[in-house]
Specification:
This protein is α/β, with parallel strands linked by helices. It has 10 helices and 10 strands.
């Protein structure tokens, strides 16, 4: 059975692309699950699920744009049933920290009868370099709601490493890993660290949630803005203002610091301004 592929759902996304690449670097057979794949997977087309899961021994499951989106939990329930019918042995679910609907999704997988690992993640550092906050950073500003709330923001590379370990090593089944960065940071502190990395000032601008919605909508449309604003309203209330040792539990090493992420992203040209 070890020659059977591992399905990575969301293989073109921030975490999925990294998980797929890291698995392939280990010499494992990966079935990349996306709408454009040879064997496509589309959350909006349930008829694609069974073919994508057929012959798969394990799957990394992400829901775009987030498990908090209306209908996501119900689709996850249907996917789990399809996975059971296909004989999938292990599901690794990416979940969101402090999100009510994400917890409901976790329970779906936990109670599925399939071996599982849950990866409950803090806010992604890569939202600043690969997501809806990249353009503001290029303009020298970080407009965020939540005031002085602190977040233990996490590098997606750590999330991917935890997922890969869960998919390939013994000892991770039945586990919940709540993963965060190594320290709490306010958005003003993140802006300062980003400015040091790019070599020019980045100013944190406190904004309302309504303004946050408008900014995200301008970059990614109302669909994405509605989701991320709902998550921001739910989670930027201090509930997540503590670190966890999930990365250490899973990998035996501490998580990467935000300053290290920012320096590496800047070196890779994430915020390069063309002349």
């Amino acid at each position: 059975m070890q020659t059977n592929p591992i399905l990575v759902i969301g293989a073109t996304g921030k975490t999925g692309a990294r998980v797929a690449a890291k698995l392939e670097a280990k010499g494992l057979t990966v079935r990349r699950g996306s709408r454009s794949s040879a064997i496509p997977f589309d959350w909006e087309a349930p008829e694609t699920w069974a073919p994508a899961l057929r012959g798969v021994r394990a799957a990394y499951v992400t829901y775009f744009p987030d498990l908090a989106f209306p209908g996501a939990v119900e689709k996850l329930e249907s996917l789990v049933e399809t996975a059971k019918d296909a004989g999938v042995e292990h599901l690794v679910l990416l979940s969101g920290r402090g999100e009510h609907h994400a917890r409901l999704g976790e329970e779906v997988v936990r109670n599925s009868g399939i071996d599982f690992t849950l990866v409950r993640a803090a806010w992604f550092a890569q939202n600043f370099s690969e997501g809806y906050l990249r353009d503001p950073i290029l303009a020298g500003v970080l407009p965020m709601p939540g005031g002085d709330i602190a977040e233990p923001i996490i590098d997606i590379e750590d999330i991917a490493d935890v997922a890969v370990a869960a998919l390939t090593e013994a000892g991770h089944r039945g586990k919940l890993y709540e993963v965060t960065g190594p320290r709490l940071m306010t958005f003003a502190e993140m802006a300062e660290a980003l400015g040091q990395a790019v070599g020019r000032p980045i100013q944190h601008i406190p904004i309302s949630f309504d303004d946050f919605h408008a900014n995200v909508a301008a970059a990614g449309g109302d669909f994405v803005a509605n989701v991320f604003t709902a998550i921001a309203r739910e989670t930027l209330d201090g509930r997540n203002a503590h670190t966890t040792d999930g990365v250490m539990q899973a990998l035996g090493r501490p998580p990467r610091d935000f300053a290290e992420y920012a320096a590496d992203a800047a070196k890779a040209g994430a915020w390069h301004i063309a002349a």
